[in-house]
Specification:
Distance between the termini: 53 Å
GO molecular function, one term: pyridoxal phosphate binding
InterPro entries: Cys/Met-Metab_PyrdxlP-dep_enz, PyrdxlP-dep_Trfase, PyrdxlP-dep_Trfase_major, PyrdxlP-dep_Trfase_small
GO cellular component, one term: cytoplasm
Bound molecules: pyridoxal-5'-phosphate
Number of strands: 12
Radius of gyration: 22 Å
Structural class: alpha/beta
CATH class of the largest domain: Alpha Beta
Protein name: Cystathionine gamma-lyase
Family: Belongs to the trans-sulfuration enzymes family.
């Protein structure tokens, strides 16, 4: 089945002819006999016993996402960070070394450096990640994990997924990729040799800005092991209602993502030629510096992009942001609505100007999530806000 058909039908079970399945909003499941519950415990990965483990509504979403990504199994989590922390903890032990891209999603970076490093003596090497040699040089005898995010949601730089996965495999190192930006429609890291594909389902997979969730997808043995340990024992379970909302979201997923792509192309090209814009960071642009790699490992591009205003005058930068009418100011991305966020809002609180610059981001950097509104209306909104500044 092609993705469009798969997401409309696959894995859904509809009792009594219901066109949409009901929510299994229950904490436990009952059994006819001692032997039946005994058998369920012997096959707990395929049984419904208690919703901190498996739940039928959650499972329907997991099956759809695994099929879409070309993975054997998926495990949903109540947030993308839940999926990231479970994946990392599964792959490492105290004293191990991790190689990660330096523009990793901020809280994932904090989890490694401010939590695991002091608590478990984890060693971490951050690399820019554009060249495979950076990973090769960073690997140590105790490296157990390589953590990628391609494209990164901060500066939109790519890593060569197949090459890094092959390198890691040759040394027995596990690989995780945050594939949230490209989505499981446009980039298939598991087919490129990655062990764990992670998504924040709070972005395009949810798509309506009403669900926070995450997922890990990979080989059955690895996912089962995470399901039984980090998922069940840490105990942050996926809520059946949120899973049911994701089922709703997945039915329109391909249509939405393709429209985000079409709108983003128009907006990126508009910004790219505007005299008050210094640069646009968007892998779908013709002059994107890693264009060849982008087309080699992705079949499409979504709606999150960065751009830099020419002005470095903070009052003008604030005026630009505040005078947008359709782009609402907010974190996150991937929903139906267009959003704007200035990375400086967070970075100025947490980092020194030098650290800020080392990340390759400046005061005038903006990040926009291009939504599903009419692209021409979005351009007009950006245009009027740009007209208002020097
Ligand atoms: C690239 C990326 N990865 C992971 C996450 C974390 O996902 P969640 O917010 O669902 O925990 C986010 C959230 O903004 C993100 O942007």
């Amino acid at each position: 089945m092609q993705p469009e058909t798969l997401l409309a039908h696959d894995a859904e079970r509809h009792p009594n002819g219901a066109v949409v399945p009901p929510i299994f909003q229950n904490s436990l499941f009952t059994f006819e006999s001692w032997d039946d519950i005994d058998h369920a415990f012997d096959h707990r990965l395929d049984s419904f016993i208690y919703t901190r483990g498996k739940n039928p509504t959650v499972k329907m979403v997991e099956e759809k996402l695994a099929a879409l990504a070309g993975g054997e199994k998926a495990q949903l989590f109540p947030s993308g960070m839940g999926a990231i922390s479970a994946a990392v903890m599964h792959c490492i032990k105290a004293g191990d070394h991790v190689v990660a891209v330096k523009n990793l999603y901020g809280p994932a970076n904090n989890f490694l450096t401010a939590y695991l490093k002091p608590k478990f003596n984890l060693e971490i090497t951050f690399v820019e990640g554009k060249a495979v040699a950076e990973f090769e040089n960073a690997i140590q005898s105790n490296t157990s994990l390589i953590f990628l995010e391609s494209p990164s949601s901060a500066v939109f730089s790519l890593q060569n997924i197949s090459a890094v996965a092959a390198l890691a495999k040759s040394k027995g190192i596990k690989t995780i990729i945050d594939n949230t930006w490209a989505t499981p429609l446009f980039q298939k890291p598991l087919a490129m040799g990655i062990d764990l594909e992670m998504h924040s389902c709070s972005k395009y997979i949810g798509g309506h800005s009403d669900v926070v969730a995450g997922v890990l997808i990979g080989k059955a043995e690895l996912i089962d092991s995470i399901s039984l340990r980090e998922y069940e024992w840490i105990g942050a379970k996926m809520a059946p209602f949120e899973a049911w909302l994701l089922l709703r979201s997945l039915r329109t997923f391909t249509v939405r993502v393709k429209q985000h792509q079409a709108n983003a192309k128009v907006v990126a090209e508009f910004l790219d030629q505007h005299p008050k814009i210094e640069l646009v960071r968007y892998p779908g642009l013709d002059h994107f510096d890693q264009k060849e790699l982008a087309h080699q490992q992705m079949t499409g591009f979504t709606g999150l992009m960065g751009f830099q205003l020419k002005t470095t005058d903070l009052p003008s930068i604030k005026k630009f942001v505040n005078s947008l009418e359709l782009f609402q100011i907010g974190v996150s991305w991937g929903g139906h609505e267009s959003l704007i966020y200035a990375p400086a809002i967070s970075y100025l609180k947490e980092l020194s100007p030098d650290q800020f610059e080392a990340l390759g981001i400046s005061l005038g950097d903006m990040r926009i999530s291009v939504g599903l509104e009419n692209a021409q209306d979005l351009i007009e909104d950006l245009n009027q806000a740009l007209d208002g500044i020097v």
